[in-house]
Amino acid sequence: MKKLLKLIILNLMMICPIIYGQSPYTEKEQKLLKNLVNVWPYIGIEPVRPTESYMPFDYIHESHKRESALKNSFSSRLLYELSTIEVHMNTTIGVNLKDGHFSMPNMYLSIGKSFHFDWMFSATPFVTMTSKFDVFNKDYATGDIGLYDAGIEAVALTRILLSFRMKAVNDINGSTFMLLPSVVDSESKSFSTHWYLPRINNEMGFRAGFIGYYYELSYSQGYSKDSNPLAVAFKINGDYFRTQFLYQYNNKNSLSPDNFKNFYEQNLNEKTHHLVQLSAMGRIPLLDRQIWINMLGEYTWRDNDAHYLRFELGFEWKMLNLAIRPLFYIPVNYDNNKHKFDMSKDLFCFEYSAYLKFDPIYFGFQGSTDGRYYIAMKAVF
């Protein structure tokens, strides 16, 4: 069934760009409709954002609002004339200097085309490919490449979001000011310490809600035979800060990857069905934006697992970036007599990085107090 749905989505993405239609509305009718919609302040047409956002954005996992190539337009033109092509990439390549392990834990490449019917409607069919690659020694290497996500993201009346996609459920915050993220999709041993958060077992489904330049309120739901994850997300996007509240739930299966285990529990009988995350990040500009102070604070609770705390503090001057990241892993229902968790060693980890940012390419070094040291490169755009 999944293969059939994937085939249908891909066929639709190939057909959409060649479908054209003449607007049924004159310019006068469009102005009238626009005025009627603007009567409702929370649904009314959102103006173009007057300022620039300086916050990093996850184009792979999150929803985002696309802009028309020609902003103040009325459709005496063809339906899909105002369109843009988007290409996004997020990849990390690193070498663990301690054990010589070379790894590309996740690479994403997403391509989409955004079709605009002026202010009334926009739709972006997209497809995202992923690959993983690990080299442990000359005789042992693993890797794969495949389809990660695909679907269509639509916005009506500049605010109403409706998206159908393979990875439908709103996911945890993966943004970072460090060189390497602390959120993992793969189970690559050198990239997934117990301080790092695993992404959920996502499924094909939908997202719906309200989206704007400064906020998003959405509900998402995935469906499969053995899993039905859902999430509610509320985000505020300022010019220099971003906050997010996220709740995830799955009553049929665990929110974690299948082979994920609690660090302090070898036999995982109780699965994670609930997750709550609160995160906030901001950037403070100094000396006419020549220097940036980057900050992040995040709390995540996973039932039958742990409380996760992440903090980041960074200094950015032109190409040079310095950043530190304290991480805490506080077990839920911890019992020292039953579990192998050592509070003196396993509670806290401190990471630090120094890298050069040749936007969109990053290259540098990252280390940690638990003995992991990397040289790594990443590309994000």
Q: Would you mind describing this structure in some detail?
A:
The chain is mainly beta. It has three helices and 18 strands. The strands form two sheets. Strands 1-2-3-4-5-8-9-10-11-12-13-14-15-16-17-18 form a 16-stranded antiparallel barrel. Strand 12 and strand 13 form a beta hairpin. The radius of gyration is 22 Å and the shape is globular. The two termini are 33 Å apart. About 5% of the residues have low confidence.
The strand count comes to 18
Mean of the pLDDT scores?
Answer: 82
| Number of helices in the DSSP assignment | 3
- Give helix % range: under 10%
Structural class computed from helices and strand pairing: mainly beta
Largest sheet: spatial strand order = 1-2-3-4-5-8-9-10-11-12-13-14-15-16-17-18
Distance between the termini: 33 Å
Strand content: over 45%
Oligomer: single chain
Q: Which radius of gyration do the C-alpha atoms yield?
A: 22 Å
Pick out the low-confidence regions.
12-22, 74-81
Major β-sheet annotation: 16 strands, antiparallel, barrel
Would you list the SSEs in sequence order as H and E? HHEEEEEEEEEEEEEEEHEEE
Shape type: globular
Concise synopsis of the structure shown:
This protein has 381 residues and is mainly beta.
Write the layout of secondary structure elements.
Layout: H1 2-15, H2 27-37, E1 82-96, E2 101-117, E3 121-137, E4 140-156, E5 160-165, E6 183-184, E7 197-198, E8 205-211, E9 215-222, E10 230-237, E11 241-249, E12 274-286, E13 291-302, E14 306-317, E15 320-331, H3 343-346, E16 348-358, E17 361-368, E18 373-380
Parallel strand pairs: 6-7
Antiparallel strand pairs: 1-2, 1-18, 2-3, 3-4, 4-5, 5-8, 8-9, 9-10, 10-11, 11-12, 12-13, 13-14, 14-15, 15-16, 16-17, 17-18
